Each structure stands twice: as structure tokens, then as C-alpha cells.
Amino acid sequence: MTALVEIKDLQVHFPIVRGVVFDRVVGHVKAVDGVTLSVPRGKTYGLVGESGCGKTTLGRALLRLVEPTGGSVLFDGNDLTSLSPPALRGMRRRMQMIFQDPLSSLDPRQNVESILTEGLAAHGIGADRAERRDIVCETLDAVGLPRWALSRYPHEFSGGQRQRIGIARAIVLHPDLIVADEPVSALDVSIQAQVLNLLAKLQAERELTYLVIAHDLAVVRHISDVVGVMYLGALVEEASSTELYQRPLHPYTKALMSAVPVPDPLVEERRERILLSGDLPSPANPPSGCRFRTRCPWAQERCAQERPELRVLAEGHTVACHFAEEIENG
Amino acid sequence: MALLEVEDLGVTFHADRDVRAVDGVSFAVDAGKVVGLVGESGCGKSVTSLALIGLLPNQNTKRVRVDGSAKFDGLDLLRADRRTLRDIRGREIAMIFQDPLSSLNPVVPIGVQVAEVLIRHRGIGKHEAERRSAELLDRVGIPDPRRRLKEYPHQLSGGMRQRALIAMAVACRPRLLIADEPTTALDVTIQAQILELLKELVREDGTALIMITHDLGVVAGLCDSVNVLYAGRVVESAGRHELFAHPTHPYTVGLLNSIPRLDALRGEELTPIRGSVRDVLAWSAGCAFAPRCDRAIETCLTGPPSLEGTNHSFRCVNPEVVP
Q1: A95 CB near a chain B CB, below 8 Å?
Q2: With pLDDT > 70 as the criterion, what percentage of chain B qualifies?
Q3: Do A245 and B240 touch (CB under 8 A)?
Q4: Interface with chain B: mutation pick from A190, A225, A256, A258, highest number of B CBs within 10 Å
Q5: Buried-most residue among A122, A155, A290, B6 (CB within 10 A)?
Q6: How confident is the model at residue B320, as a pLDDT?
Q7: pLDDT tens-digit profile of A266-281?
């Protein structure tokens, strides 16, 4: 099993500028600060974390929708960070994105056929209109939209159907990788399940590789093979989906999991909650050492001095915490 | 007698065509209890709460008709005049909205906004109000309250803003709190903090709470009784344990089966409800959920089903048989 995407020490730092006439850089927001991960071919990598942890920026930097300031992204052996613009444009066919809010990511003045054909035309797929229409129709079938949708506009559809259009736009080019940023969080629960099942079906049919970015642990765990947990610009834990939920090792992962409400009163009553105090610190001025230490119930002196590296604690299970073993053993 | 008794509440918007957003909703809230109103977007849960405290746009004009009754300690909120309602809102009944940024005034410091409630309803002086505001912020868990009082909403984080909003809501120790999706805009760890705070307020002050949410997980951890709404009507109503142990209406069952659960085995398939809320039948013609229901039979289309049962009631002619 080879990796389709290999991200090495990726950094995205946004400059903070001040000044009336001349812009002066007074600091950096370290949105992504040294993330290394690899997405296996044909599998789903789930990235979870709270707002502001840098998960969306990571996804966008992977596709070079924002320019990384350091590190490299290997996509099928090619380093995306050093590709020239025309070469990158060619590569874009193979990596597509699904956005959170389907209404604002679809042009309200384009009908569905035009939305779906645009990418085909740009990459020169399909000889003429008729051939492109065939490809588009086949894609509509795949995502479960009727043919009459072709001449309609985004506002004429419900939220779930709009997300299906977004998915159709992503898969029409037969990409290898799809980055899905919060694909279901804007949808009602009954519709969420439909879209999650659709994503699973498409992956099986088309051998797609997914990077799913979401804040909802239950959703991520449901569709991912491997899950990475991010906090303040860095990965704090990575493990297979089953392993992570059975044996969370990082204090942040533990807290996150204990905070997710489960629709079962008996479980809710028995559950031990780890309540985190306070909010996420500012990524412009992150705490020294371990970034989680300001909210960590187990924080000790060493955490303030030394930034913990990701360590392998079991097969395929890495954690960035000095005291992971001690915490696990009580 | 219950603190709030809502009887047959209905809201109709007269636009190009009449929209019956809430259609005969009844429930009761006791002091110190939490009642949940659950449903997806467009089911009428927010309209219900706004109608109760007279905050619907154009309420009591020709464009919006509200019928039924809502007795709060004997007083019918739906028939009360504006002056009475103004005195009740903020003092006896308070509301917490979903988006704290848009429900706080951006150009007024937090402290002034919290103190305003106290000055208006308690008639106390400015300095006393400021002192009490600081106490309130402290109570809802905002660190360094003296400094925060002087800050503007944009300087606070999302969780902090929601805490400030809760501080305003509980300033006059209201007997009833209405929380409309209070944690939907927040991260899970912050959500857990806010839910814990709401529980504490209910336990310590004996406040009654109406919790409006789409999240069945939140309901499971917080509410004493639950009303599931669909297309403006209550389709199932039961105590918390009863509802989750024996969901009876196909819609409730469908919702529960659609949620990926953290404690479930991985790979367990989700069984979504088909279609969308747009596939709705008028209640007058039959069951509004019938077009999306797998258990629909012919009787479903012959007329509106009635709400059956006392402790655990449901509106279905072919309910789910629970093994």
C-alpha cells in the first residue's frame, strides 16, 4: 500500500501586518506549523480539530489554494510545492475539493450543466458538447440527481441536493484525491447520513482517496480509515479510526471524545467528562512547549519547556505527549 | 400546575400563500425541568419559541396569526399586551439565541449590555448594576470579569460571548429560560462547558428550561422530556429515557439511525431518511411524513393522524414495533 499524498513538515504562516503607509510585518499567525502525514491510496484520512486549529488551511495548502511557507507536499511522487503554474493546473484535475457550504460554493448564475462542464472544458476532456453531456449525465446518475437537474440553477435545490451537485463537480473529472472540507456540517442529520453513504459508495466505485476535514468526531470516525487530531496548527495524535476511539492517548483527544454528545441517555449519564477550561490560545502567540498545556489537566513543568514530538506508541499510533503512557496507566 | 402550559399553539404566516409553520403544538414545562424541542430545519421549533415571548416579526398584525394559548403562571402570553410582555421578557422569561455575535450589540461594551437588563427590570443604580454584572460574568465562568465588562463583543471568543449572553439571560433570575440552539455555533469542548453551565443553572436556581436543538445527543444528556417536531407538529413526545429506549414514530427512529455514533462499531451502515423536508404533505391530507416514510400504508393518506398516548405519545397509524 503506497501513499498517494505525503505531506512533510508543512507550514503555512500568515504575516500580521500593521502600518498606515508602509506595511510592517509584526508577527505571524502559525496556522499550520510543521505537519507531517500521509494519505494512503484508496483510503480515507480524517482530520479533526476545533475551529482555528488549522485543519482547513492544511487542506487548502495541500491543493495549493494557499501557498505553503515551508515543507513539501508529494502527490503521487510529484512535489506540488515546486510545480510551475501550468503543470499545477494540469495536476488539479487529479485533485478536487468539496466545500462546506454548497450554496456559496456554487455560482448562482450558472446552471448545473454549466457548473459540471466547466472543468471538463478547462482540461480538454470530451471531444464536443454531446460527449461532455454524456459524461455529465453519467456523473449525475452516480450522485443520485435526476437528469432534469441539468438546466436548473443551484437555488432550486435543497441543501442535500446542492451538496450532491458539489460532489458531482468534484468527481466529474475522475480525480484521484478529493479533499472534503466539512462536507456534511451544514446539512440536517437525515440528509447528513445520505451524503455520508454517497461518499462511501463513490469511494468504492471509483477508488477515490479522501482527505476529510471535519469538527465532528462521530462523522470522521464513521468514514475514515486513519484519523489525525489537530490542535493549534499541529498534529497531536494519529491512529487508525478504531484504535483511536478505543484507546485515545493524547489528553486533548480524550477531552474531545468525552465532549461529543451521544444520543443515548444511559451512556450520557455514565460517561466521565473531561471538561477543558478556557478557549483555544491565539495561534499568533502559541504557548511555549506543548501547545495544549494551558488547557491540559495533566500539564507539568516539562510541558512548558519542551515541545513534545510525535512518538510511535503502538503500530500506526503516534502521539505528541510527554506523559501519554503515565496518563494511560493512571 | 405547570409553570408554562402551551395549548394548541399555531402560527400562520400570510404571504403569497398561507404557511402554517406551527400547527397545534402543546407541551408543558415545570419549574426545574428541561423540555426539549427537537427537529430539523423548518420544523417550526424556533417559530414556536419566538411566538411564546412575542418576538415574531410582525406578531399580532394581519400578516402573522398566532392561535392557541400559552399560560405562564396563569397569564396567557399570546393575549398579553406589549407592556406586560416587555416586563416579563428578561425578568420572568429570558431567551438565549444561537448566534451570540449577532444577538449582542457590537458597539456597546459587554458590561453595559448586562447591566441594562438589571437597571431596566430591577431598577437599581448604575454602580450597583455594574457590580452585579461582574458577579454574573464570574458565575457563568468568564475569567477576569472586571476587565471583560469593558470589552466589546468582538474581543470575546465564541464560547465567551455565549457565556455573556447567558449571563444577561439569567441576570434577573428568570423562572423560564428558552435556549434556541445555544451550542450549535460552538466547538464540542466549548459546547460541553455551556451545557454543563445550563445544567447547573437549572439545578441551583430551579429555572425551567426549554431547549431547542437539532442534536439528539444534546437532548440525551440534558432534557427531562422531549418533543420531536416535524412540519410544525409534535410527532412524538416522551420522557428522555423512554424516547431513546423505545422510539416509536418512524421519523424519530429515522433520525436516530441517521446519526453516526461515536460509541458504535465502525463500518456500521447509516440508514438515512429518504428525500428531504421539502417532500412534505399537508397535514390536512394525511401524515406529513408519509412521503419519506418506509412504513407508510394507505391509511396514512386518509387524514391527519392524532397524537395518541399519555406518557409516551406519538402521531402515527403504523408505528415502529420495538423488539
Answers
A1: no
A2: 98
A3: no
A4: A190
A5: A290
A6: 81
A7: 888 888 888 887 778 8
- DSSP state at residue B321: P
Q: ipTM score of the complex? A: 0.83
What confidence tens digit (pLDDT) does each residue in B136-169 have? 998 888 888 899 999 999 998 888 898 899 999 9
The maximal CA–CA distance of chain B, rounded, in angstroms, is 68
pLDDT tens per residue, range A78-94: 999 999 999 999 999 99
Distance from CA of B275 to the nearest CA of A (A): 8
Interstrand relation of A177-181 and A95-98 (parallel, antiparallel or unpaired): parallel
pLDDT tens digits, A90-123? 999 999 999 988 888 899 999 999 999 999 999 9
Give the integer Cα–Cα distance in Å for B202 and B197.
9
Across the interface, whether the CB atoms of B277 and A158 are under 8 A apart is answered yes
Contact criterion met (CB < 8 Å) for B276 and A259: no
Q: Cell for B300?
A: 396514512
Q: Does A255 touch chain B (CB under 8 A)?
A: yes
Sheet containing strand A226-231, edge to edge, reads: A95-98, A177-181, A209-214, A44-48, A226-231, A234-240, A317-319, A311-314
C-alpha cell at A124: 480538454
- Least CB–CB distance from B244: residue in A197, A219, A263: A263
Q: Chain B residues with CB inside 8 Å of A278's CB?
A: 143
